[in-house]
Every structure is written in structure tokens, then in C-alpha cells.
Here is the input.
Amino acid sequence: QVQLVESGGGLVQAGGSLRLSCAASGSTFTLYVMGWYRQAPGKQRELVATLDSITSGTNYADFVKGRFTISRDNAKNTMYLQMNSLKPEDTAVYYCNLRGSRRSDDYWGQGTQVTVSS
Here is the structure.
């Protein structure tokens, strides 16, 4: 069993910054891709950013390019989402996700609330 715990969310003003963390614990598995998703009220969950564990390649949704950065610290079993120049439309619950070599290795955190005031 793998458990993911997000932290770092909160209330910030437009233009501000936050860094979200996702700490993993429990069973080990071969990690392929890590990512951050978000879901705003009344909206579907959407991809924010991914980081390939093997190649270190990154992908970002168009609406966060140039503002958000995904990264990891292997020694700490933690990944991060640095969010700069936040906008009110970034308000959502943010979830971390880890996917491994097996279809069953697909894990989600409980989410952390990010609220950006205007």
C-alpha cells in the first residue's frame, strides 16, 4: 500500500506564490510518472504537470506554462509543485499522482486546497 500526502496549500493573493509538496510512504514500486492535477468547483479534474521518472522530462498544461514548476527529491520521496504568479482561476484542490510500471500502481493523494484571491 502506498500513501501520498499533499501539503502547502492555502490562501494567497493574485500574483503570489505557493509550493506544494507530496510525500510518499509505504510499499515500494517502480515509478514511471509523477504528476499534479487540480479540480475546481463544478469542473472536471485536469492535468497540471507531469515529470517522467526515467527521463526527467516534464510536461505542463498550457495554462501554467512559465508559471509552475514540477520537481522531485528522490532522497526524501517527495515531489513538489512550485506555483508562481498565481491567478484566481488557479483556485482548486490540487492532487498529486504517482504511476508505476504496473496498471495497478496508480496512487493519489487526498488533495490540498489552493485559493487565490483577487
In short: The first strand starts at residue 2 and ends at 7. The chain has a mean pLDDT of 96. Residues 37 and 75 are 23 Å apart (CA to CA). The radius of gyration is 14 Å.
